[in-house]
């Protein structure tokens, strides 16, 4: 039976802009659209603008004095669904998104007594925005990394919008969300909600 217990989500906005930037972030906009879709499934959560934090380079869960990654890591541990949102720069996920993935490398050596990594039983969704092609490449790189550190990937869990090549229109500039993007967002939210409920009801068995 699918769990009816309340589920929570945490989103990491990996825009290069800090939250005090005058310009609104396209990544924030698509994350907001995802949360609107999740609300229809009774799922609430919060967004963290990662550029606001001092995330030190490294591959451990705590890199020492001044490192603010541990507080973001705790939000991952507490959530059922983790959303990673990133813009595309030079065809790549943002450097901030890559920093998040590097820090989660520590999960590989942090298994519990059942052999589970900290992300075991947690569902991942990835949102990508940009003015050029590259969304599928970003999804491939990020989902591979998230799978490696223990997250479970639902069907159709990647959502994206890219403008025309060499254009200057951002997602945040759109007056209306394109129908196919809205459909993809709704599908991702529905599938992630279903999978998270299933995993909450029946956790992965111990590794033998």
UniProtKB/TrEMBL annotation:
Q: Which domain of life is it from?
A: Bacteria
Give the coiled coil ranges: none
Recorded hits in InterPro entries, A to Z, give: Flavoprotein-like_sf, FMN_Rdtase-like_dom
Q: Which residues form the NADPH-dependent FMN reductase-like domain?
A: 11-164
Cite the Pfam families for this sequence. FMN_red
Name under which the protein is recorded: NAD(P)H-dependent oxidoreductase
Originating organism = Neoaquamicrobium sediminum
């Amino acid at each position: 039976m699918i769990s009816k217990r309340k589920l929570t989500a945490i989103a990491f906005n990996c825009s290069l802009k800090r939250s005090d930037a005058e310009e609104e972030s396209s990544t924030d906009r698509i994350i907001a659209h995802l949360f609107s879709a999740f609300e229809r499934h009774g799922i609430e959560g919060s967004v963290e603008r990662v550029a606001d934090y001092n995330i030190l380079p490294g591959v451990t869960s705590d890199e020492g004095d001044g490192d603010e990654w541990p507080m973001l890591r705790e939000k991952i541990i507490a959530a059922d669904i983790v959303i990673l949102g990133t813009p595309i720069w030079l065809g790549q996920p943002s450097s901030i998104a890559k920093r998040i993935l590097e820090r989660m490398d520590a999960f590989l050596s942090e298994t519990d007594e059942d052999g589970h990594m900290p992300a075991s039983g947690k569902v991942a969704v990835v949102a990508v925005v940009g003015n050029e092609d590259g969304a599928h490449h970003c999804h491939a790189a990020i989902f591979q990394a998230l799978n490696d550190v223990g997250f479970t990937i639902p069907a159709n869990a990647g959502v994206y919008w890219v403008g025309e090549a060499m254009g200057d229109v951002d997602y945040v500039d759109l007056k209306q969300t394109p129908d196919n993007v809205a459909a993809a967002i709704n599908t991702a939210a529905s599938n992630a909600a279903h999978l998270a409920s299933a995993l909450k009801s029946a956790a992965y068995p111990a590794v033998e």
